[in-house]
Amino acid sequence: MARPPQGRSLIPGPARLGMVDPQAADRLASLGWDRDEDIDLLWALSRAPDPDRALLAIDRLRDALASEWEELDAALREDTGLRGRLLSVVGSSTALADHLIARPHLWHKLRGQDLDLPDAEGLRANMLAAVEAGAEPEQIDGIDLARSLIYRAATTGHAAIPALRNAYRDELLLLAAADLAATVQNEPVLPYPSVVRHLSDLAAAALTAALAVAVATVCPDKPCPSRLSVIAMGKCGARELNYVSDVDVIFIAEPADSTATRLASEMMRIGSAAFFEVDAALRPEGKSGALVRTLDAHIAYYKRWAHTWEFQALLKARPMTGDMTLGEQYVTALNPMVWVVSERDDFVDNVRKMRRRVESLIPDDIRDREIKLGAGGLRDVEFAVQLLQLVHGRVDDTLHVTATTEALTALASGGYIGREDAANLTASYEFLRLLEHRLQMQRLSRTHTLPALDDGEALRWLARAAHIRPDGKTDAAGMLIQDIKRNISRVRRIHTKLFYRPLLESVSKLDTDALRLPEEAATRQLAALGYSAPRNALGHLQALSGGVTRSNRIQALLLPTLLDWLSDTPNQDAGLLAYRRMSEELRDKQWFLRTLRDEGAAARRLMHILGCSAYVPELLLRAPDVLRLYADGAHGPKLIGTDPDDVSKGLLASATRHGSAQRAISAARSLRRAELARVASADILGMLSVPAVCHALSSVWVAVLEAALGATIASSVEERGEPAPARIAVIGMGRLGGAEISYGSDADVLFVCEPQPGIDETVAVKWATGIAEALRKHLGAPSTDPPLEVDTNLRPEGRSGPMVRTLAAYDAYYSQWAQIWEVQALLRAHQVAGDHDLGIEFLHIADKARYPQGGVSSNAVREIRRIKARIDSERLPRGADPKTHTKLGRGGRADVEWTVQLLQLQHAHELTSLRNTSTLETLDAIAAEGLLSEEDTDLLREAWVTATKVRNALVLSRGKPSDQIPAGGPDLRAVAYVAGWRGDPGEFVENYRRITRRARTVVERVFGG
After folding, report:
1. Which of 250, 206, 247 is nearest to 228 (CA)?
2. Higher pLDDT residue, 952 or 35?
3. CA distance 791 to 786
4. Parallel, antiparallel or unpaired: strands 804-806 and 747-755
5. Which residues pair with 232 in a beta bridge?
6. This prediction's pTM
7. Minimal CA–CA distance to 606: which of 587, 621, 590?
8. pLDDT > 70? residue 9
9. Residue 200 CA: distances (Å) to CA of 25, 188, 237, 245, 320
């Protein structure tokens, strides 16, 4: 270094040393660290993660050392090892700095170029020495305790806990100093496996000492008669413990008597007070179960009662302290049960449910900063690794390892995951664990939450503590953010293909050096991933990616992500089959795979729909262009960028371009097919409300009727060679008239005609009847599309009455002979197709019947109630559950509609706002007019919308009309999923029953009088 000009100091100011504390300069001066010969010491201080925090700690340490300060000051100038360890640890951890200041003599242990950390035996000896513990006798009542780690402490009572805490933190300080030294001095970074194993060994030593105090407390005068073994679970069991973490344990004792229970309780109390939270919640029956059990009791529980997650937890089980022989017997007895748990039917579902539950516990305000539980975080790696271990460990003993990184290595060696994926996942996992350690070390608190992105100082500290330095272009905080995003993104990306890439490599013909899963292993993995027919699924994968074409290569790249999205759906088998059929059908359409490759949202939406719906895939196969709408446009999803009224106009325009009725109706069917696929897709994806779905479906039904009627009339006119003899109109009834059509609804209609001037009425009616019959025949022709059934049974006199009547005939019938149920049916009559003016004239006739002067009589009201009671008792299908039948069940759609229609019959003659064919709009009017309270109308509206949504979900999931919610099983899961329910399907049913039960109370009070 060149000498500065005479009189100019080499010492940089506090700001250049990275300090912002205004008292930094005074502290440096008081320490005597402001001379030119202190330059190396000061630059080392500047490299501490937080130089201000380090300087303050050194200043406090000087006061604590008093006369020894000069010795430390001199050592810091000469001993670079001491300098790196001391400055890095006090610049990283406030808690450990406080501990060092409270026990200042510990700085001597940080001296020297090499810091030798004690091994497991040394750690145990140091912790036992803190409470002057000696070994128990080697035999108790003839039982050999040679392999026991049970000791008896001389220090007990109130003195034991501070002695243990100090000893534990002494060891923690030494490890942290070695772990952090590279932040200040150019020393090798302590490998991640070494850190977590040392922490795990330290925890075992600490609990051994805590057990020694417990022995002396519970059995002060004689050896304890119980053999007690402590099993480490979780991260401690896997020897990958954090700096601050709960230590999960399970206790086994022989006998499991009150003495053993007191020993375990006392050990937990002492350990939790001195070191870390000791948690026994993973024991059989959790916190409600016995704290201590015998080995036989444990075995009996796991054979009969244990849940899947409990066996998953046993992957990490390891004898830690106490009677090690008994602990090894426990692991040996339960280990075989662990490796067959993947054969359970609900295995994958339970594992995923556990993962989703963990994610649901993350508060929304820290979700993006949670590196342990969040997406792309540590849990994603651990759950994925454990799932693969459980799947393949049944036949491959090399996977019987406990640590996550060791399991990744074993999985890669066995060909269950790619070697590159394993290496990248290991690197990202260790990086995230490093950040977790640094965050916990700061205050010795259990945390996994990153600083906010706008907290520059906290990010800068964390980056420096994690050995991240600026590169000249980006500061340390910016580089840290980049590294975090890159690693979380990499975990997410690899996680999506972890289960599927080896499967595809085993069936594809891509050139790859990766090990290939044998067919048995591939089938086993697919079964564990939830496929009920894994061999069929493997065949689909072979067909999709097993060739050498460009499409096969693209499929091999796409499928890991597609299959991961499909895995969240209730029917993966059907979804994969539908995807194969679609891929084969569209093999010549280059845009198909290009869309899936380039439009991630489109691909995700497609797999979501294929895995839950039997209705939509069939439509998509015949209307594939709808798939283009799955992508996002400039203003959001293209699926909802279409106005149903515009679709209707387009359908009518297309149909009129065709010469024959058959071709016109075929064109109308094609456009209807596409619109059904669009609406159903948007519905399943949660993009459309129930009223919007009903409006869209009604609109397309009306357009089809209009197009078919127009084409049929045009064909008849051409065939006759003369103008039509009559005007004809189609009146929508029921849900068609109310614009509340569902997926499985027929079109209830009336046909009305009026002779042209000079045409005999008989001739006109005969011709119109032929048109109506032809229309029904054309629309009802067999087809692979959802049916187009035109139902005329609501006409006067029902099936025995004429198909078509004139205005005068309708007027005469409704004024003289109409029964009350026919008047009620007219409440939903609305002109939908044909001659508009004629339709309006019919509605004026209908108004006289449905809105009679003075309202309906009390006898008519009683008759309506009688009819409804008869329907309730006779129309409900045999075996149907009235609590979950969406149409005729209690509080279902019929209940709500009949209640609304009764109020219309009673009040619409004087309250014109009630003259509406829509159930929901009429409910709004009823509330506005004060006929019912808003609370009552809200209950009725919620029940109607819920029942309609569930009925739609029944059709969408099963592909055919149904009104009965399934009792359970896969069918119920699919219906709940399509209805947007992501929780327990049983809770979905209970939610439906609760909503309809509350509505039923309103119905009974209002409709029942």
Report:
1. 250
2. 952
3. 15
4. parallel
5. 249, 318
6. 0.77
7. 621
8. no
9. 41, 22, 8, 10, 9
Task: Report the range of poorest mean pLDDT among 119-133, 213-227, 356-370, 897-911.
Answer: 356-370
Two tokens, residue 589: 């359409």
What is the C-alpha separation between 175 and 116, in angstroms, rounded? 10
Residue 116 buriedness (CB in 10 A; 0-12 / 13-18 / 19+)? exposed
Is there a contact between 310 and 282 (Cβ–Cβ < 8 Å)?
A: yes
In order of 30, 132, 214, 483, 686, the CA distances from 154 in angstroms are 45, 5, 11, 50, 67
Asked whether the beta carbons of 731 and 842 are under 8 A apart, the reply is yes
Q: Does 255 sit behind a cis peptide bond, omega within 30 degrees of 0 on the bond before it?
A: yes
- Which residue type occupies 631? A
At 994, the amino acid letter reads R
Segment (H or E) for 599: none
Q: What percent of the chain has pLDDT over 70?
A: 95
pLDDT in tens, 613-636: 999 999 999 999 999 999 988 777
Angle at 98 between CA 51 and CA 112, to 5 degrees: 70
For 382-391, how does the pLDDT look when each residue is reduced to its tens digit (9 = 90+)? Answer: 988 988 898 8
Q: How many residues does the chain have?
A: 1009
User: Which residues share a beta bridge with 834?
Assistant: 729
How far is 684 from 610, CA to CA, in rounded Å?
10
Average pLDDT score over residue span 685-700:
94
Can you say whether the dihedral through the CA atoms of 146, 148, 149, 150 is positive or negative?
negative
Angle formed by the axes of helices 160-180 and 94-102, nearest 10°:
120
pLDDT tens-digit profile of 128-187? 999 999 877 654 454 454 467 889 999 999 999 999 999 999 999 999 999 998 888 777
pLDDT for 935 beyond 90 = yes
Residue 17 contacts residue 45 (beta carbons within 8 Å) = yes
What number is the average pLDDT over the span 989-997? 97
Residue 516 — pLDDT band, cuts 50, 70, 90? Answer: low
**Got the DSSP string for 96-132?**
HHHHHHHSGGGGGGG-SSS-----HHHHHHHHHHHTT
Report how far residue 992's alpha carbon sits from residue 884's, in angstroms, rounded to the nearest whole number: 8
User: What is the DSSP secondary-structure string of 936-1001?
Assistant: HHHHHHHHHHHHHHHHHHHHHHHSS---BPPSSHHHHHHHHHHTT--S-HHHHHHHHHHHHHHHHH
Lookup result for tokens 């994690």? 466
DSSP type of residue 397: G
Could you tell me the two tokens for 472? Answer: 């000249």
Backbone angles phi, psi at 896, to 5 degrees: -65, -45
- CA gap 307, 374 in Å, rounded: 24
CB atoms within 10 A of CB 352: 16
Note the pLDDT tens digit of each residue in 587-609: 988 899 999 998 889 999 999 99
Instruction: Evaluate whether 374 touches 367 at the Cβ level (below 8 Å).
Output: yes
